Amino acid sequence: MRPIQMVDTRSQYQKIKTEVDQAVLQVLESSAFINGKPVHEFAAALAHYNGSKHCIPCANGTDALQIAMMALDLQPGDEVITPSFTYIATTEVIALLRLKPVFVEVDAKTFCMDPESLRKAIGPRTKAIVPVHLYGQSAPMAEIMEVAREHNLYVIEDNAQAMGCDYRFPTGETVKTGAIGHIGCTSFYPSKNLGAFGDGGAIFTNDDALADKMKMIANHGQSQRYYHDVVGCNSRLDTIQAAVLQIKLKHLDEYNDARRKAAEYYDAGFAGIRQLTVPQRASYANHIFHQYTLLVEDGDNSAAKRDALNTFLAGHNIPSMIYYPVPGHRQKMFASFGAGEQDMPITDWLTQRVISLPMHTELEKEQLDLIIEKVKAFFQN
Description:
Layout: H1 9-15, H2 17-30, H3 37-50, E1 54-58, H4 61-71, E2 79-83, H5 88-96, E3 100-104, H6 115-121, E4 126-129, H7 141-151, E5 154-158, E6 166-168, E7 174-176, E8 183-187, E9 201-205, H8 208-218, E10 222-224, E11 227-228, H9 239-249, H10 252-270, E12 276-277, E13 292-296, H11 302-315, H12 345-351, E14 354-357, H13 365-380
Parallel strand pairs: 2-3, 2-4, 4-5, 5-8
Antiparallel strand pairs: 1-9, 6-7, 8-9, 10-11, 12-13, 13-14
Helix pairs in contact: 2-9, 3-9, 4-5, 4-8, 10-13
């Protein structure tokens, strides 16, 4: 049995090695390392896959969020609402642009933005909402978009962990996450469901004017060389990464299906463990399991129990991760915004209980059985 890893990118690569090696070699032979043909081909293919009119590649997912916010002409002091329970990049760029992050609660079952908490957070300076499709689960976009329309707010989807997730509206219409809001942002960090062999990101929109502006911002603010219309940055997806991603995109649905099957196997294995809650699936979307995240419940001792499980698994060479132990409203970097004064009981409750197990496309039955066996053994002791 291979050693168990949180993400096994090496084994995934071995299955598509011939295709990938040939594509990379072609880039090397062309020497078009920046803005080469594969960049444009991949952008077009990804836009088609995601059902978006425009796809603007960029250097990473954090840049994608920053470029999106820059394109909306938000002014210093404007408020952007986002969950506290998410990776720091989502909120970091808000503060970086001298905007004010306003943190809201998530649903305790789906880990995604709670619409009621969102409504309560809206004020006269609110300009945008950034829902996060966390762990591969879609946020409740129908309700979020309704709130945005009522208050004339922009919606920027953080789709870094949910590329390929289908959201079903109450009307029955199905739309990919990242193609619902005014702008969608994603990351191609190697561990993502659609991961590069380095950094990368992309921005989606159906708005022609926004697309043109974001393309300029990502390219030093220029629409033609040496003519800079807006203040921009330098954020490019390099050609080698685009070539790799173009191949992996063909396998994305297959990859997501493999993750779902692994999640279902975990679910069955953990049935009956009273102190564990398996990941909940929202009725409106098909979870793609960027992470398989359990809740450990042991009353006031939950955090200690969860940490003990983490240590126990590590002792048996089984990795596990705690995403995210310190939520945004408790980070020192946001102290000047008064974030630490916010009462967020659900977020604090989750940070004491969540633990993620290995989840990737190459998990073998033997590996899953061992993980399940050791988790069971921990709770039986």
